[in-house]
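Weekly structure sync, notes
Attendees: PL (lead), two postdocs, one rotation student
Agenda item 3: pending single-chain targets
PL asked that the sequence for the first pending target be pasted directly into the notes so everyone works from the same version. It is reproduced below exactly as submitted, 233 residues in total.
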Amino acid sequence: QQAKELYEKATRLEDRKPVEAKQAYEEIVNNYPDVENIAEIQTKLHQLNMNIILSNRQVEGKTLVHDVVPGDTLGKIAAAYGVTVGFLKRSNDLKSDVIRVGQKIRVWQGNFNVFVNKSQNILILKDGNEVVKIYTVATGENNGTPVGEFTIVSRLVDPVWFNRGVVVPPKSPQNELRTRWLGFDIPGYGIHGTPRPETVGQQVTAGCVRMRNEDVEEVYDFLPMNSKVVIVD
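Predicted structure, written out during the meeting:
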């Protein structure tokens, strides 16, 4: 009964008070994980998380506003606050890198990181310890994906793939990395897209974490350099 009341409250508040709706959904997930529609509730929670983080809504303790001054660029602002340019563009609905003096840029003050569970083939995008969104991924066959805590040390859009000495250009159908590369501090391993989305959810890679292209493009914008990645069995 309590879970039902929380669900009704959350659906009622989704549009007007998304932060309160999110708290109600979280209470269900944390305290009533056996409710029949838990998968739907988790999906709604993840959508709300993304909507709140990427909206123009001010959230106490999490957002601030940067007033653009002469000499500012999106790159400078992103570096100052430890976020990516892509994240600023997503969360301010910017269609280009052009900004003007006096413009107000909303900045989400988060600590985005990633947790990968190989046995479930899932990647969890987190803000600190809080789950933001869960993605299905592909991991290494024969347990080939390394376990441990890693750091993002390279970020590439439309990466070249170096395959056993052969240079495969970004737009080639043979390029296994597709549109994004997030490289770990262990050479040769990282998170990337795929030309074969039907393999996502399986243990089939050479060791990297493989995502659908639209998913890796989203995660890429959340993770600046030096972001933490934890991978477990």
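Discussion points:
- The CA atoms of residues 82 and 99 lie 18 Å apart.
- The first strand starts at residue 63 and ends at 67.
Action: rotation student to compare against the earlier draft before next sync.
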